[in-house]
Specification:
There is one protein chain. With 104 residues, this protein is mainly α. The protein has one domain. It contains 5 helices and no strands. Helix 1 crosses helix 2 and helix 4 packs antiparallel against helix 5. It is globular. 8% of the residues are buried.
Length: 104
Amino acid sequence: MGSSNSRVGDHFLGKSTSAAIFGGMDEEGRDLFNQLTVLHGAAFDRAYVRDQIQGHEQAVELLEGYSKRGDNDALKQLASTLLPTIKEHLQRAETLGSSVTARR
């Protein structure tokens, strides 16, 4: 999922802009990373999948909203273009979540 996010950014935004957007973590990202670094095994799996699902749900909500009500036509088109891929990633994360939960 991560590599396709970077490829999309490179394609639509150019490598330098994409690197600036995808290259660093904000405080929330750093906090999530720090939480994951202390977990192992099934606890890590559950937390990682939970965070992937939450992140993709947020992305779907954001893209759906912007594709309908955005004020920049090029970004509205980008949101519409990205939405099916992000929904697919969400579905994969949910499937993985079912698998992780079943292994408890």
